[in-house]
Amino acid sequence: MEKFDLVLMNPPYGGNEKDSVKANFPMELRSSETADLFMDIIMFRLKKNGRCGIILPDGFLFGTDNAKVNIKKKLLDEFNLHTVIRMPHSVFAPYTSITTNILFFDNTHPTEETWFYRLDMPEGYKNFSKTKPMKLEHFAPAIEWWDNREEIEVDGFPKAKKYTVDEIAANGYNIDLCGFPHEEEEILDPMDLINQYQEKRASLNAEIDHVLEKITSMLGGN
User: Fold this and answer.
1) pLDDT grade for 200, boundaries at 50, 70 and 90
2) Contact present, 68 and 25 (Cβ < 8 Å)
3) CA distances from 166 to 18, 111, 117, 125, 172 (A)
4) For residue 116, what is the enclosing H or E element?
């Protein structure tokens, strides 16, 4: 199968894949979520010394079901997850309201440490929208920080911080780190609210499916 030196991807997320699709993946990495399966494929098809930048939803970072944990463990054990950029909310509005992140990793060596950087909403913006989208200039703080990395704390909460792989493992591979500490109530358009709940339901369904598969297997079923 063809492998690649560079992968840049914004995979679909919130999807719930069928058993016939999951059967193509190793048992321990079989997630029902589309974005998780894209991670499996990327890890399989990234060449030695290859690089990847992928946009993933928050659910991948804090997910604790077995498949997600195994995917993150494989990522850290076999690849170098060197940077996670936490994105502001509403980046993809009006198409989705789910908060996303950019994960940067390469196929050079196992992860030793991972930097997390929170990119805050630019001054003068409360939300992004179709008519007021996120622009390249809004990444300027992250780009400036990238080459001169330092830990940053704002109002007692980390905005940029480095964690060792041992610290991440001890945290149960929950990499929901340097997030947004002050959540504001957001009034959404009704269709945006419906889409948000559908995406959350798909994520929950994936976890339920995994638990049911384990129970069925323990009972000797198919």
Assistant:
1) low
2) no
3) 34, 10, 19, 37, 10
4) strand 113-118
Q: Which residue has the tokens 């991440």?
A: 168
Say which residue the tokens 């419906």 belong to. 194
Instruction: Please report, in angstroms and rounded to a whole number, the separation of the first and last CA atoms in the chain.
Output: 30
Which amino acid, residue 156?
G
183-188: list long-range contacts, CB under 8 Å, 24+ apart.
186/89, 186/97, 186/127, 188/97
Q: Report the alpha-carbon distance of residue 208 to residue 211 in Å, rounded.
A: 5
pLDDT at 130: 85
At residue 187, the pLDDT reads 54
Q: In the block, which residue shows the tokens 């193509």?
A: 24
Segment 70-108, tens digit of pLDDT: 999 999 999 999 999 999 998 988 788 789 999 999 999
Report CA 214 to chain centroid distance, whole Å.
24
